[in-house]
Amino acid sequence: MRKTLPLGRFMDPRRRAEGYRVERDMLNITARQDLMRNICDTISVLVEEARLDFAENDLEIRVVDPSHVAMIRMKVDSAAFESWEVDETSLGLELVKIRDLLSLGNAGDLIEMKHDEAEGRINLSMGKIERVIRPLDHSTISPPNVPDLELPASVTLSGEDLSRALRAARLGGELVNISLSEEGLTINVTGGDTDSVSVMYTKDEVQELKCDEPVRSQYSLSHLLPISKLMSVVDSVTLRFGNNFPLKIEYEFANGAADVTYFLAPRIEGDI
User: Fold this and answer.
1) What are the pLDDT digits (tens) for 160-212?
2) How far apart are CA 236 and CA 214, in angstroms?
3) What CATH number is associated with residue 164?
4) Which one of 39, 83, 113, 137 is at 20 to 30 Å from 208 when CA atoms are compared?
5) Which domain holds residue 87?
C-alpha cells in the first residue's frame, strides 16, 4: 500500500505554526498581460484562491493544495512590473476573476491594478476594459511555511526536456520514479507486468548534475503534469530530491525577475 506523505511531515515542527501578518495600505501597479498570466496560471495549478503579499520591492505568494501534498512559493521582483507603488499590502483574490480578464488581452497589453481600501474593492483595467472585484478577507487565507530541506542531489535541465519526459511517463501510469546518479537522470513508470515507459538524460545531456550517490523517489504525475506545462518554455529547471524525500523544483521567468519553487511530497510504500 502506498500513501502520500503531507509536506508538513518534513518541516521543523517549530515552524509549522509560524506566520506573519501584513497590514493593508496602498496598492497601484501596472504589469504586462503575460507577466500577470504567468503568475495567475502558476498559482492556479494548486488553488483557486490565494493571498498576495505585496512588499516595498516584491510580491510573494505561497500556496498549498487542499491535500497538503504540493506547495508553491513565488517571488516576483518589482522590477518585473511596468509601475509599482506599494506599501506593505496583502490581498486575497479569486484567481479565476483575474484570469478571465487576462484571457481577453494579448501578451503586450498592460493591466493596471488599484486597491481602493476605503471602498473595499480592486479596480482592474486593461485597454478599454475595466473590471471591479471585491478582495477576499486575506486574514482567512494562511500562507504555508516553506520547508527548509537539505536535499542531497540535484539536476538542471531544460524545461522542454523535463516536460516531455513527464508527458511520456504518463503513458505508463500515474506514479513516476525519478532517479539520479552520476550517469544521469532517469524518469520511469511501470504500469503493470509488461507496460513501462522510461526516459533518460545522460550527464552530458543535462545542464548540471550533482549526485554523490544514487537517489530515487516516487511522485504523483497528477501533481507534476500541470506545473510541467508551464515549465516547458523555461530554459532551465532544477530538480532537488533524495531517497523518499520531497521533490523541490526551481525555475525562473520574466528574465529572472520572478522565481518559482514547487514542492511535492513523495509517495512512500507502507504505512508511516
Assistant:
1) 999 999 999 999 999 999 999 999 999 999 876 678 999 999 999 999 999 99
2) 22
3) 3.70.10.10
4) 39
5) 20-140
